[in-house]
Amino acid sequence: MTVLKTSLRNVLAHKGRMALSAVAVLLSVAFVCGTLVFTDTMNATFDKLFASTAADVSVSPKKDDDAQETGRPETVPASLASRLTEVTGVAKVEPHATSRQITAADAKNKSISPESGAPTVGTNWDESQKKSVDITSGHEPHGPGETVLDADTAAKHGLKPGDRVRVMAAPGDFSVTIVGIATYKTTNPGAAVLYFDTPTAQARLLGGDSAYSGYGLTAAPGVSDEQLKRNVTAALGKDGADYAIRTAAESKAENKKDIGSVLDVMKYALLGFAGIAVLVGVFLIVNTFSMLVAQRTREIGLMRAIGSSRSQVLRSVLVEAVLLGVVGSVLGIGGGIALAVGLMELMGSTGMNLDTSELTVKATTPVVGLVLGVVVTVLAAFLPARRAGKISPIAALRDAGTPADGKAGKVRAVVGLVVSAAGGAALLAAANADTPSAGSGLLGLGVLLTLVGLVVVGPLLAGFVVRVLSAVVLRAFGPVGRLAERNALRNPRRTGATASALMIGLALVAALSVVGSSMVASATDQLDKSVGADFIVQSDNGPLTPAQSKAVRRASGIAHFTTITTVKARLALPDGTSVTQGLNASEPTYGDDLRTETVQGTFADAWGKDAMTVPEGFAKDHGIKLGDRLTVTMTGAREARLQVKAITSDDTSINKGGMFIGLDTARQYLPADKMPLDMLILAKATDGHAKDAAASLKAAVADYPQVKVRDQADYKKLIQDQVGQLLNMIYGLLALAIIVAVLGVVNTLALSVVERTREIGLLRAIGLSRRQLRRMIRLESVVIALFGALLGLGLGMAWGTTSQSLLATQGLGVLDIPWPTIITVFLGSAVVGLLSALIPAFRAGRMNVLKAIATD
């Protein structure tokens, strides 16, 4: 109890100094708890949606990952309905005609399809829909020209009953009038949904009245889902092997599996950034307790002199850490819930609607947050607490401070240099690895060792780097600058720990900047080398529908078009193995529009009858030689024997590893209804008419807002924007770690000001003005921040350069260091240091000189 009272008194006595450390714990715990609440809410939302839409038993086509991308969903025969009706235990059979491969536009030709990646769904209206939605305006669709639209999409685009909507599907485009608005009983996570009467859905979405996309079966009273599934399986006999027969629970699990992988990636990515923030927070807490222990040296000596043991002193400091961890964690749990709400609102702005009323906080989430915050805080405080317990009473009463072990400092420096050198060797080995799989482990090891090594060797580097920075930055400020330099060098361990917190965040920023910039530069380089076409036409929502492809080809001023599609096929290889592969099918003009190097044979020969190409790496791995004939079975087609007419070079990033066949070859073996949709179309303008051709192409696809016509400059900008958006999102997440690091600088300065109270009083007494004092503290902060930035940016560029070298074989062939970004971040670090010092400098300037001199 005495230890608890002492610890509580110390916490309250230094509450202002503890507050910033508590904020670091709060932010770290908030990020972890916010991520858990956010992903749990998303899982719960999808669970409710899937549960509300699942039939007791469903019969649908077996999922075929190798099916051709025809734009039409896989179907089951309409004749199956009569057989299912006769199955024992079936109360009702409801046929479904659903497609997730459509797009839609309003009367102004503005797309109403989601931009978040969620699908546009077209489906038939039947009684089963009433389990998940209510028609809150208008009425059900009754004829070929009517549709019901979901309420979220209607609200977002200002649509209402009576408005016209055009639907674009593989069987053809058609227009309908909105006759009703359907509101979900659960949350619609972002899909745009259009309901049609069943005959319309069959004809317009599936292409005829002979099939459905599946059936939903309602069990008779007293018949369980499992029993009904057994009855259906038995009734269908051998034919049942062609269908996926699932209970409601199995359908829910299957749907959850499909979305779960995406949610897991999001969850672990966010937790990874939370882990970085926790790591940075550790430095802040270590610094805080190290300085508090140093400031209470005499107090600790008195405790030891009156009988307190080392273990009691250790426990006293650790209890303070527990109190700090508990307070920070409890506040962090609340902050995490608020963060989850903010993430949900952010997702809402991108089109994924999540209802905050369905916020899901599992019992384990607060427990995880509390345990994480307390454990991290206690572990971070352990070393300072242990050093406090080692102070002898005599030394403490003489205010000798915590024991300085010169030998330990030398050992630390040697260990840090050895670990850093080992990390550098691992990075070098990774950069020279033959394949990314062989070098990825070395890259991870190198990143870890160099990070740990620089953290350990930080105090040694501080002595040298701070002097160099001071010579450049601080000497211009005369005696005040020299005082700031001396203060930064006074405790290299503290300076190193403070800078290390900033170093981690900036190292990641620099590494990602190098990789991102190299991606853009490499893609641009490949476009310049390989693309001979003037225009690239593609849809932002997937493949082009037949109507869209026809519209593109109506453009004038075009010398030729080159269609590119992907045919899925199974290849029997000379080494006895077989693989499923996507074959790029195109016209002979492909070689002009996308220049492809060959190591054997001539690329132009690949477009002849029964001809194909293979990449050199694939050929080497499977013993394929020029002139060999491979047995190729395209999905939905008869077997073909195709001759290898060319072996293409792997030294490219465009269609790297791709195999090519002619469109005529694909059409020779594939039935028309199995031909995949066009993925994109390349266009070459007639000489001197590029501007007119561009205008004609854009006019030709004007009715299709999701179809974009881009020239090479536009495509380069698209790549740059996509990489930039990804990096900006990552930078936003890394900002948390940098904020925690900034708090560390503020805390270090604030505590160092208290530590140097008497010294500050003496400086003021001999003539140092308040303005000079504040400037001294600000300059000290700036040089510490620049020290951390220099280490972080240097380390990050090493990581990024290694990553680029490792990925050079995968198309990342151009190293591009984004110097404007690096320089901006470095200069920004000086601003961060300046801002971090404002409050400590202000408080130091307000000190009473006489009281400061009288301070022990």
UniProtKB/TrEMBL annotation:
Residues 19-234, 495-695 form the MacB-like periplasmic core domain. The keyword Repressor does not apply. It is a multi-pass membrane protein. The keyword Lipid biosynthesis does not apply. It is found in: Cell membrane. Residues 61-72, 127-143 have a biased composition (Basic and acidic residues). The chain crosses the membrane at residues 268-294, 317-343, 363-383, 413-433, 445-478, 499-521, 729-754, 779-799, 819-842. Residues 273-393, 733-848 form the ABC3 transporter permease C-terminal domain. Its main location: membrane. GO terms for molecular function: transmembrane transporter activity. Pfam families: FtsX, MacB_PCD. Residues 57-147 are annotated as: Disordered. InterPro entries: ABC3_permease_C (IPR003838), MacB_PCD (IPR025857), Macrolide_Exporter_MacB (IPR050250). Keywords: Cell membrane, Membrane, Transmembrane, Transmembrane helix. GO terms for cellular component: plasma membrane. Belongs to the ABC-4 integral membrane protein family. This is FtsX-like permease family protein.
